[in-house]
Structure formats: C-alpha cells, structure tokens
Amino acid sequence: MSLPLPQTVKGDSASERLQNIGLELPDLPGNAYFVHHRAVDSSIHISGQLPYRNGVLLGQGVVGRDVELETAKELARHAVLNCLAAAVEAVGDLDGVRIVQMLVFVASTPDFGEQSQVANAASELLIEVLGENGRHARTAIGVAGLPLNTPVEIQMICTAV
C-alpha cells in the first residue's frame, strides 16, 4: 500500500508558495542564552522552536489530555514556520533551504501514540513550500513535558542549496 505524498503548492518560488497558502515567515526575537541557528561545515543546526506567533505562545498543555490532535498539528505547523525563519536567517533565502532532518517533540500522555501524526503536519508544510528540498529524515517522539508547557517543539538540521 502506498501512501499519497503531500503536493507542492503552486508558485514559482518557495516564498510565493508560502504566500499562496496564506502564511508568512515570522521575525524571530533574539535570545541572550542561545542562537536560533548555528552553521557547522555545510550543515545548519536550527534550535528547537516553539509554536510562537507575534511573540505569543499559541498553546499549552499535554496532547491526549489538554490538547486535541488537530490543535497539536496546527501548533506543529507554527513551530516549523519558526524553524524556516531561522533557516532563512542562516541561508538568506527560502529557495536556498534544504531540510535534512527534523526532530519533533510532542508533550503527550503515555498512551497517546500519535506523535507521528503531529509531525506529519509539519512535514506536509515543508513539502508544500519547499518541494523536494522539504523532504527530510525525521523523528517524532513523545515526552513528559516541554519548555513553557508547550505541546510541541521542533528542531531541525538543514543545508543551503
């Protein structure tokens, strides 16, 4: 059985595709304790990003108890937008980003078991916007808790193309 693959959104550039689905990359505030990205050789390591929009954390709680699956998926999409913003800071242009690996942390109850569905929402967004450059290796894991009681945190490694 083969699964349907997410499709790239129409648009000549990754920035246009992002705009065509009604999204834009956020500005990332500075932090005194860490940087949003660090280049090592050809790899760019993106710090774990939370689902912030305009400086506001969009959700709190544990998936499977306080947070529904669909809400967690939407939070994952916001977190991955912040990852893309950090990647653009490092590379300079959305079309120059290739995702290598994504690690998705989901604060969830021990019996939840659908962390991969939460991660799929972020993966789909990457493929919609970046096409083949958005396909990546991935790990999705459940954890007992995350910073600020957020349900989702995403970390990634990318490279410039």
TrEMBL record:
Residues 17-150 form the Endoribonuclease L-PSP/chorismate mutase-like domain. Pfam families: YjgF_endoribonc (PF14588). This is RidA family protein. It comes from Streptomyces shaanxiensis. The lineage of its organism: Bacteria, Bacillati, Actinomycetota, Actinomycetes, Kitasatosporales.
